[in-house]
Specification:
This protein has about 220 residues and is α/β, with parallel strands linked by helices. The chain contains seven helices and five strands, in the order ααβαββαββααα. A five-stranded mixed β-sheet has the order 3-2-1-4-5, sandwiched between helices.
Length: about 220
């Protein structure tokens, strides 16, 4: 089941996991909803905080429009979507933990409350030179900005945004593979699964499968 969250339908059918693509879609959608409920419960307990000692947080915004195959075909609703995905990626040694929020715009008024809610005061924060981030130092963060029009690695302090840019590529590859951004509802579900995988699935003592069984049991108790 855990592998079914990531494997392509054709691979799972060949492996005998399920008999049809339609059945697999129902199974994987249900499992992703289970993961989504689990990460929301975790968030409500205020355990999703990033930053602090010996860690830094890279922040950025990105578009998750659906890719048209070979650039052909009609442009669906995702091409007209004005929303952004705002990401806060905690980097601590080899650990990466993202918080991903779908936002209508990337203004300071919209992004700053999210940062203050999820990033611990006093944290080291790295961003590009987008104007919405200019006041972070005034709110108690140690802020490093990289102007990508001049350089990709700050020559003075070595700050860069490559961690979160690499994460965007990985997240988009997974979501595009499953056509998980055709609607905002499906995009939110897949963003929550990415969070679940990093915060809960990989951290469980019995691995992703152990955590998944735990969350399935929790859903049945509700």
């Amino acid at each position: 089941l855990a592998q079914g969250l990531r494997k392509r339908h054709v691979d799972m059918i060949e492996d005998g996991v399920c008999g049809s693509s339609k059945s697999l879609t129902r199974v994987t959608t249900h499992l992703r909803k289970v993961c989504g409920r689990a990460i929301r419960r975790y968030e409500r307990r205020r355990k999703m905080k990033v930053g602090g000692r010996r860690a830094f947080v890279a922040i950025d915004e990105s578009k998750f429009r659906h890719k048209r195959k070979y650039g052909r075909g009609r442009r669906g609703p995702t091409w007209r979507r004005s929303s952004w995905v705002f990401g806060m990626l905690e980097v601590k040694h080899s650990r990466r933990r993202p918080i991903l929020k779908l936002v209508k715009n990337r203004s300071r008024r919209r992004l700053l409350p999210i940062i203050r809610k999820y990033v611990r005061p006093g944290s080291h924060v790295i961003s590009d030179s987008w104007g919405a981030y200019n006041t972070l130092a005034q709110h108690g963060y140690i802020h490093y900005q990289v102007n990508h029009q001049q350089h990709f690695v700050h020559p003075g302090n070595g700050a860069h945004t490559q961690h979160i840019e690499r994460a965007w590529r990985n997240y988009k590859e997974d979501i595009y593979r499953y056509r998980g951004n055709l609607t905002e509802k499906s995009l939110k579900m897949n963003l929550r699964f990415i969070e679940w995988n990093s915060w809960l699935g990989r951290q469980h003592r019995n691995g992703i499968l152990g955590r998944l069984f735990k969350d399935i049991r929790a859903c049945h108790k509700v």
